[in-house]
UniProtKB/TrEMBL annotation:
Gene3D superfamilies: NAD(P)-binding Rossmann-like Domain. It comes from freshwater metagenome. GO terms for biological process: L-glutamate catabolic process. Keywords: Oxidoreductase. GO terms for molecular function: glutamate dehydrogenase (NAD+) activity. Residues 101-332 form the Glutamate/phenylalanine/leucine/valine/L-tryptophan dehydrogenase C-terminal domain. The keyword rRNA processing does not apply. This is Unannotated protein. InterPro entries: Glu/Leu/Phe/Val/Trp_DH_C, NAD(P)-bd_dom_sf. Pfam families: ELFV_dehydrog (PF00208). SUPFAM superfamilies: NAD(P)-binding Rossmann-fold domains.
Amino acid sequence: MTGFVVTDLPGSTRATGVVRLAKKILMDGAKTMARSQTYAWAILNEQVSGASAGVSVDPAESQAGMAAFVDAVLDRVSAGELSLEAAKGVSDSDLSQLAQADTRSKIGQTARSNGTLNQELLAGGAFASAATAHGDLEGARVILEGTGANTAAFIAAAATHGAQIVGLGTFAGAVVNPEGFNLDELLGLLAESGSALPSSLGSEVPSTALFQTQTDLLFCGSKMGLIDHLLAETLDCKMVIPVAPAPVTAKGLAVATHRGIAVLPDFISTAGPLFADHPADSATPEQVVATATDTLSSALGQLSTHPEGLYLAACYAAEAFLLTWQESLPFGRPLA
């Protein structure tokens, strides 16, 4: 077993991010994930570094590997220097000891109608970002890809904005319905059966077919580098909204922009859960959600007229803040 923690910025007293487990976790991908979190904190004018951890271990030894990793980082977490969330291959129960020691607010784990508050913040922040960049989402066609365990929260957010979901990727495959799904029915089925949705909802298609389905908004993030220049050439959407770090490559961004497809900065569209990190002591979950969506909408709104597009405008804004407390910028932007 080998494990590591990437902390993006030197001199930072706090770092937050995720931990992943697989047979082989690559350092380059971890650095990109950490960079996305760094830029998210910078957009919020917070002197916090991004972090990303990886545990490379044979599947048969994963439990022992995670236990050893938790032991290795527990002191840093207890001291408030490091906070990690579960990602690929890691369950919340794997990190229960770290969660108990974490100095952050526990409000993000509050149970809500369609998941936890953190999940509601992720979905709400992504949809608020989309609404700011696109305009009113009433009747807008939406595809959800890569939302995973957060799917119910994203469906609920779509319903709140009056959007129409026409395609949905799940762990079990993908379904498409050009007329739009009944969102109440979708939520009910997810509550009953998890990600295994019946084909009666619409046409079952390969997950890759979602990207050629006509839509206004493509929410995506099943893996880093998902949308490269080749896939960007075939997209049939008006806007890409990341739901996880760096799903678009640098060349993918260039091609999409050239084709008139807006790509929202992942470090804004995924930043909702950061607002549960240290809210006001008296803040309710509803107030945390309102603060997150209002702040992210305002941040994007201020960048909307930049001639180089939203993604680069957001990078420039994050980098301007970083230079107020770092001697130099970290090398490379959060693109796969």
